Amino acid sequence: MGFNAFDDFMFSFVPIFITTVFIIVIGFIIFTIVSGIGQWSKNNNSPRLTVPAHVVTKRAHTSGGSGDSSATTKYYVTFQVESGDRIEFHMKATEYGMLAEGDVGMLTFQGTRYIEFDRK
């Protein structure tokens, strides 16, 4: 009789647990999509600004790459504008490679979206 009670518990607990995990995962995916769309919309509604700036620092963040999986690298550059504020942007590897710390020029951006840096 002891095994029967355990079996009954497992048959009622496991589906509830799997359903809960499924709902959490789907909820996280939906939250990520909605957040991305919200940021995209906010950027589109922000003014496009071109301001004098200089490159303060560059960094790259690499993730993955263990076993048979490939590594992914994201590139970030921090600019300082005339007011002293610093802004970090995610950018493509080709644009990242064309910038050096200390470069001075005109930074164009829209919200959190990097558009270009025209080096002087």
Can you describe this structure?
By secondary structure, the protein is an alpha+beta fold. It folds into two domains: 1-45; 48-119, OB fold (Dihydrolipoamide Acetyltransferase, E2P), CATH 2.40.50. 41% of the residues lie in helices and 40% in strands. A five-stranded antiparallel β-sheet has the order 3-2-1-4-5. A hairpin with a 4-residue loop joins strand 2 (71-81) and strand 3 (86-91). The longest helix has 44 residues, at 2-45. It is elongated, with a radius of gyration of 24 Å. The relative contact order is 0.16. Keywords: Membrane, Transmembrane, Transmembrane helix. Pfam families: DUF2500. The chain crosses the membrane at residues 12-38. InterPro entries: DUF2500.
Overview features:
transmembrane, 120 residues, elongated, transmembrane helix, single chain, 5-stranded antiparallel beta sheet, 5 strands, alpha+beta, DUF2500 domain-containing protein, 2 helices
